[in-house]
Design brief:
alpha/beta, Rossmann fold, 2 domains, two-stranded antiparallel ribbon, elongated
């Protein structure tokens, strides 16, 4: 039995995403993710005006008449959302936690994919593979993915991005678009991410909270590391501490963006304290210009 609170969250996300997708978002999505190439359709006899580069020489030699191969654009795309739901995602200081934001973001793009008749799958990971739902089509399938994302109870604290990337590389046979959604607290993932990006179109989605980028002055505060459980008492009224904290936060995020750039992985940063739809549409426009 699904708790009523969860049902309400699913309904809220469904309403929000339906409005976002209907407001032209799906069209933006379709213009960028058009499928993964050409697929063979048939062989037919050559006609004047046909491109001689499409001649099927084997059939031509066998029949004694020129034949050509015909291809059609492969419209169907597979999208996989690989979502890090380790303990650090339970943090959030505005309207939602990072994990809730990740679920909402995935829902928006998943409904856009469903409207485009694409397949959508889900991988939830921590320091283990927690759940894999193979890609399928349809809005009911998307609702199931949202339910799993919101209902997931974190059994472990840490995260292992290379483990998830290796798993994706083994289970996805056909080229797909992979949205890697994480707060990227772990940093040792460059090589496996680069390898996966050669076979698939990987898009990194860093999920942040504003408190991770800038610390307010609120006196003595006890913090707990969500992934190790370590406790530490911090005097946030110290200007020196806040300055070092802010510099470290910006430096960490700049290093992440630099790593992604170096292996040609695109990035859509999202944060709990601001809307992200405009950023996603800007990303679509950037990709459309590039391709």
């Amino acid at each position: 039995m699904i708790p009523e609170e969860l049902v309400q969250k699913i309904r809220q996300i469904q309403i929000f995403t339906s409005r976002a997708v209907d407001a032209g978002f799906a069209g933006q999505y379709e213009s960028v993710f058009k499928g993964m190439g050409m697929t063979f359709e048939e062989v037919r006899e050559y006609m004047p005006g046909d491109d001689i580069r499409t001649i099927d020489w084997n059939v031509t030699a066998r029949t004694g008449k020129p034949y050509i191969k015909r291809f059609t654009e492969e419209r169907e795309m597979t999208a996989l959302f690989a979502v890090d739901l380790s303990a650090s995602g339970q943090f959030g200081t505005v309207n939602k936690t990072k994990n809730e934001l990740a679920a909402e973001f995935c829902a928006v793009l998943a409904f856009a994919a469903a409207k485009n008749n694409d397949k959508v799958g889900l991988l939830i990971f921590t320091d283990d593979i927690e759940l894999f739902i193979p890609p399928q089509k349809g809005s009911r399938h998307v609702l199931r993915l949202i339910r799993e994302l919101l209902y997931f109870k974190m059994p472990r604290r840490r995260t292992d991005i290379p483990l998830a990337l290796d798993y994706i590389g083994r289970i996805l046979r056909r080229r797909a678009t992979v949205f890697l959604v994480s707060d990227f607290i772990e940093s040792d993932f460059k090589k496996p991410l680069s390898l996966l990006n050669r076979r698939h179109d990987v898009i990194a989605v860093p999920v942040r909270d504003r408190l991770e980028m800038a610390m307010p002055s609120v006196g003595l505060v006890e913090f707990q590391d969500a992934e190790t459980g370590e406790m530490v008492l911090i005097d946030t009224s110290s200007g020196r501490f806040r300055s070092r904290y802010d510099i470290a936060g910006r430096r960490s995020f700049d290093q992440l963006k630099g790593t992604l750039r170096s292996i040609k992985v695109d990035c859509i940063p999202i944060s709990t304290d601001r809307p992200y739809i405009h950023d996603v549409i800007q990303f679509f426009h950037m990709r459309h210009r590039r391709y």
